[in-house]
């Protein structure tokens, strides 16, 4: 167990970068340099955290033990190669969707130590889940460091088959968006039934919050919790008969996850 985090370079201080930085601050940092040209990143400055707009502004004597890549995959081909000078000394942890360990190694130099990971936005409240895969050049102590950095924002699982990162990206990486969409759709349906908008919003939000809390607190499976709501010949049964029809949610969710998985694979090939 690492007690205090070593010097870190965070490349990209947007939604995910900021969420991880907040988790690291709770964990105890020595020094973090955030490389981000965006004006919004300035808000991340504070005790032990410096913001720089370009790599040229990173102090020459700063020696990060880990570099976390939290920029969009679409700019990776521009943002990643200049970091190759750290490849001999630092671990790289990439959370970019789709970008493979091979792609990163090709842009950083063949021997770079690389962990590819996929977190999700509940990281912002330390309730995320991350799946990670360590490349061949990662030393055991570097794997431990990656685990510590990622565990600061929620649960963490390592896999050895990197190809699983594409469906993981589709399921848990994007998963919060599907849940938020459900809130939006429930709210719209409530309004359609004549429920006043303010109450409709409250019903939709608190239903998801309450159901998630019940899932977290209960030892029962999701299917058992669903059955507990569903009275024989009652109201929920009528709704579920529509939602659970093979060409309804089962088909839509499966097709959606398939499309997102394919997009993750394609992002790995671009640039
Ligand atoms: N948003 C999400 O739900 C998740 C996103 N990811 C991945 O995390 C990465 C970041 O995503 P978000 O935080 O959502 O994006 P974001 O747009 O909030 O943050 C990206 C940050 O990169 C900065 N940036 C742009 N060009 C840069 C450069 N050349 N050097 C350094 N920084 C630069 C931007 O100013 C911005 O602050 C992406 O690769 C995405 O695939 C992973 C899991 C979940
Ligand atoms: O939509 C995306 O590409 C990223 C990866 C997972 C969540 N957001």
UniProtKB/TrEMBL annotation:
Ranges where the Pyrroline-5-carboxylate reductase catalytic N-terminal domain occurs: 10-98
Keywords: Amino-acid biosynthesis, Cytoplasm, NADP, Oxidoreductase, Proline biosynthesis
Keyword Isomerase: no
Any one GO BP annotation for this protein: L-proline biosynthetic process
Occurrences of domain Pyrroline-5-carboxylate reductase dimerisation (ranges): 162-267
EC numbers for this chain: 1.5.1.2
Residues annotated as binding NADP(+): 70-73
GO MF annotations in UniProt: pyrroline-5-carboxylate reductase activity
Broad EC category: oxidoreductase
Reaction catalysed by this enzyme: L-proline + NAD(+) = (S)-1-pyrroline-5-carboxylate + NADH + 2 H(+); L-proline + NADP(+) = (S)-1-pyrroline-5-carboxylate + NADPH + 2 H(+)
Main subcellular location: cytoplasm
Record pathway: Amino-acid biosynthesis; L-proline biosynthesis; L-proline from L-glutamate 5-semialdehyde: step 1/1
Taxonomy, superkingdom: Bacteria
PANTHER family given in the database record: PYRROLINE-5-CARBOXYLATE REDUCTASE, PYRROLINE-5-CARBOXYLATE REDUCTASE 3
Role: Catalyzes the reduction of 1-pyrroline-5-carboxylate (PCA) to L-proline.
Name of the protein in its database record: Pyrroline-5-carboxylate reductase
């Amino acid at each position: 167990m690492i007690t205090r985090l070593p010097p870190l370079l965070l490349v990209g201080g947007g939604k995910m970068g900021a969420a991880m930085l907040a988790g690291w601050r709770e964990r105890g940092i020595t020094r973090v340099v955030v490389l981000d040209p965006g004006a919004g990143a300035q808000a991340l400055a504070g005790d032990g955290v410096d913001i720089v707009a370009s790599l040229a502004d990173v102090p020459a004597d700063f020696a990060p033990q880990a570099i976390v890549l939290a920029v969009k995959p679409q700019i990776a081909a521009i943002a990643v190669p200049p970091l190759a000078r750290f490849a001999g000394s630092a671990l790289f942890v990439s959370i970019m969707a789709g970008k493979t360990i091979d792609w990163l190694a090709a842009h950083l130099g063949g021997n770079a130590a690389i962990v590819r990971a996929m977190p999700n936005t509940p990281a912002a409240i330390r309730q995320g889940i991350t799946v990670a895969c360590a490349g061949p050049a990662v030393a055991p102590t570097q794997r431990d460091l990656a685990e510590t950095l990622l565990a600061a924002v929620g649960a963490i699982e390592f896999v050895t088959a990197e190809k699983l990162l594409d469906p993981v990206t589709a399921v848990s990486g994007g998963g919060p968006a599907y849940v938020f969409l459900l809130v939006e759709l429930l709210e719209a349906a409530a309004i359609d039934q004549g429920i006043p908008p303010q109450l409709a919003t409250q019903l939709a939000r608190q239903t998801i919050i309450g159901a998630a809390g019940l899932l977290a607190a209960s030892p029962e499976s999701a299917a058992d919790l669903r059955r507990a709501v569903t009275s024989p010949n009652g109201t929920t049964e009528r709704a579920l008969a529509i939602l659970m029809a093979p060409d309804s949610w089962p088909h839509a969710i499966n097709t959606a996850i398939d499309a997102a998985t394919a997009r993750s694979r394609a992002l790995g090939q671009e640039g």
